[in-house]
Specification:
Layout lengths: L2 H12 L2 H43 L2
Helix pairs in contact: 1-2
Amino acid sequence: MNVLTWLQNWLRRLNSKDGQALVEYALILALIAVVVIVALHFLGGGVSDTLNNVASNLVNP
């Protein structure tokens, strides 16, 4: 299957009832991605410190 056929099939699905569900799932996925990025932004330093501590304890027990 070439890219043009895949794109045509995808666009056809967007115009059907299945396409509506596809768009809804894409929006939910985008919202989850935004929440994860925001959480990692605020917790990133703590997670990094914890992983560094674990790595140090594994190397030098």
